[in-house]
Design brief:
Helices cover 20% and strands 61% of the residues. The chain is of the alpha+beta class and 66 residues long.
Length: 66
């Protein structure tokens, strides 16, 4: 039986929500091994002068604890 743990990570990108999600996983992978899934819990964006300036995500990352 595997033991799984979930962490919550916030990330942002000037490009897209998908890019922000990829950045969250890449950053988490620097200190967490065996990442199995990512769940996008929340998306938002900051707007300046009528244009989106930054895409933000709140994700839950699941990994196996050994």
């Amino acid at each position: 039986m595997a033991i799984l743990k979930v962490i919550e990570v916030l990330a942002n990108s000037g490009k897209s929500w998908e890019d922000a999600t990829k950045k969250a996983v890449a950053q988490a992978a620097k200190s967490v091994n065996n990442i199995k899934s990512v769940y996008v819990q929340d998306q938002s964006a900051s707007v300046d002068d009528g244009e989106i300036k930054e895409f933000r995500v709140n994700v839950k990352i699941t990994f196996v604890v050994k």
